[in-house]
Inverse folding.
């Protein structure tokens, strides 16, 4: 059984960096492609007020979508950034508690 995930990157440079990182974690690239960002409402309205045909220039930059796949269970689960941040919070909290205890004992 295979795992599949889809990631969207905001620039081609970030996409290339992300692909290298994910390949190091055992993911292989199945497909890549641009994602049309649609139209920016703020730019469209602003340009529409100046000159209606210019409103068509309010298009957003394209993003890039990459589909990854790997064999399930072949690699350990990746730690999310949220779990890394929570670990840091627990360490800082522990240090603060120890400092309070040490201050009350002195």
């Amino acid at each position: 059984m295979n795992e599949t995930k889809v990631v969207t990157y905001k620039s081609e440079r970030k996409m290339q960096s992300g692909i290298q990182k994910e390949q190091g974690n055992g993911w292989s690239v199945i497909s890549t492609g641009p994602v049309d960002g649609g139209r920016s409402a703020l730019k469209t309205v602003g340009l529409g007020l100046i000159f209606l045909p210019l409103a068509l220039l309010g298009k957003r930059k394209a993003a890039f979508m990459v589909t990854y796949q790997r064999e399930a269970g072949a690699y350990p689960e990746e730690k999310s950034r949220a779990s890394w941040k929570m670990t840091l919070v627990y360490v800082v909290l522990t240090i603060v508690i120890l400092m309070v205890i040490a201050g009350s004992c002195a």
